[in-house]
Amino acid sequence: MKLAGIKQPKTPRKRAKQLPRPFIFVNMAMTADGKIATANRAVSSFASPRDHEHLYELRATADAVMCGARTADLNKISLGTGGTKFQQQRLRRGLAEHNLRILVTGSGTLDPRAEIFRHHFSPIIILTTARATQMKLARLRAVADEVKVCSQREINWPATLRWLREKWKIKRLLCEGGGELNAALFRGGLVDELHLTLCPKVFGGRNAPTISDGGSVTRLADAAQLELKSVEQAGEELFLVFRPTTKSKLRRHSVPHATDGSRPSGRSTRARRQGG
User: What pLDDT score does 251 carry?
Assistant: First the structure.
């Protein structure tokens, strides 16, 4: 374990090129008792400025950034790069100056007046299902660059991710929560890397959201199996990187439902906590 600044893990670009879908990495911060917000969602910003910078460093390696729609609906976020410093990092890596932005809303309830639609630096893609009415779809299409209906009631993640790779050329996709969106990806065996900031706080609360909410596994054998790849300490925080074990990579779970951001835990995403 290193006790000074945070060393960025090597970007698995070769693997990203080989996958038929984007390489998916999740970035979240949580308390020492595993919470990403208080039970009433009143407190969801608790990490350090260094963690804030770390968020932008990770965005600077991604072709697109994705989060649940409720975060964009209720908070002033843009899912942007974080400024010139990080835009220059992207250009040096051969990426576009700005990342694409993806919002997930299974029922199409995202408010077209949300703050994110006021920022036009990069395309916004909305993923939804046939549960969204034609009126809702029309409103979203008026403000987004593309609205993709991904199956009837539940987002078909494998097919949707292949579409993102083929249509939008997304090789690396950063997911910033919330917990239900993360859970859908974990259940589908689709998370390739987990970046987790462990913060020295305890929130408590049986109903406080975690990094993976929604349906739970009932057998230990069905849990996502991870291995620790790196640990860095900065101040009182630990920055952890996990990747699936070989056994976990070979197992693919069905995805019972997709988050539409309408449940409370959908609000507790990295984007909301960092105000970006």
Answer: 53
CATH number at residue 171: 3.40.430.10
Give domain status of residue 3, yes or no.
no
* Beta strand extents in 58-150 (DSSP E only): 64-68, 100-104, 124-128, 146-149
Q: Do 274 and 50 touch, CB atoms closer than 8 A? A: no
Question: Tell me: the pLDDT tens digits for 103-129?
Answer: 999 999 999 999 999 999 999 999 999
Cβ contacts of 45 within 8 Å, gap of 6 or more: 272, 273, 274, 275
Decide if 96 is inside a domain.
yes
Single-letter code of the amino acid located at 5 = G
| Alpha helices (H) along the chain | 13-18, 49-59, 69-74, 84-92, 134-141, 157-168, 179-187, 246-250, 270-274
Q: Could you tell me if residue 5 is inside a domain? A: no
Would you place residue 72 in the very low, low, confident or very high pLDDT band (cuts 50, 70, 90)? Answer: confident
pLDDT for position 117: 95
Residue 190: inside a domain: yes
Task: Name the residue range of residue 200's domain.
Answer: 13-274
Tell me the pairing of strands 193-199 and 226-234: unpaired
- 3 state DSSP class of 182: helix
Overall size of the chain counted in residues: 276
Q: Kindly report the pTM of this predicted structure.
A: 0.86
What secondary structure letter does DSSP report for 116? Answer: G
